Amino acid sequence: MNETVATEPGRYAQQSDGRSEFGLTRLIFAMLGVFAGYYGFLWFSGFYLARTVHSNPNSIVTSVTNLAYPAKAIFVLVEMILVIYLYRPVHDLFVISDHQSDRDHWMREATVGAGIGIILFFLAIPFLQNLNTRMLINTVFPGNQPLSFRSIACALLLGIGLPAAGEIVFRGIVLRTLRTYSSTLAAILLSTLLFVSIWPLFEIPVSLLVGVVASVLYSWRKSLVGPIFANIVFTLSGGTYVLYRIWV
User: Fold this and answer.
1) How far apart are CA 223 and CA 211, in angstroms?
2) Domain boundaries of the chain, sorted by first residue
3) Which of residues 216 and 150 earns the better pLDDT score?
4) What H or E segment, with its residue span, contains residue 169?
5) Are 94 and 100 in contact (CB under 8 A)?
6) pTM of the predicted model, to two decimals?
């Protein structure tokens, strides 16, 4: 039976038969599927909205348009889950160094990640005035009923589920694979560009900042736990800050 061996970055997940679970071909097809699905979804959504506006230009258009923002984010979450399923079992995505034998590993890395997430939040404050970000947050938490079941569900999906799944994919799979075939700097740059081009929660400057910091943190700590907590803490902090500015 094949067993995953955790070694240096250039030999991640090597099998006893010499086959790598994190091969470049597998990554290319996975990312092609993600981007084809994402931009296909955007095209279909735009086409549907255009037809709706043309045939029924009334209040329903506003509702459909508002739903488009969380729908895009949830669609990306579904795509991330599918990619993770392709690379199952998920546990192997976290086994990248001998640190995994340390019982305090998760707590230590979670603390480091949360601290980095807070720093990220303060660095991103100047960019959190963006209209699209405000529209997304205001759609998830409408002013007339900010704490409905739908709002809480969206907050959990977009504030915790999407950042966690995104880090597993873009750091634990994409960056990890690229580091096997290129230098760390090149892998960070390419994985960050892929991340920025599809990340639905914030605009390009914020997504770029998150992508670079999370990639550096992953390369430094050799663990997915830190980037996951950093992204979650940043997303929840950024969303809370935008909500505060909208409602106050």
Assistant:
1) 15
2) 9-247
3) 216
4) helix 162-169
5) yes
6) 0.81
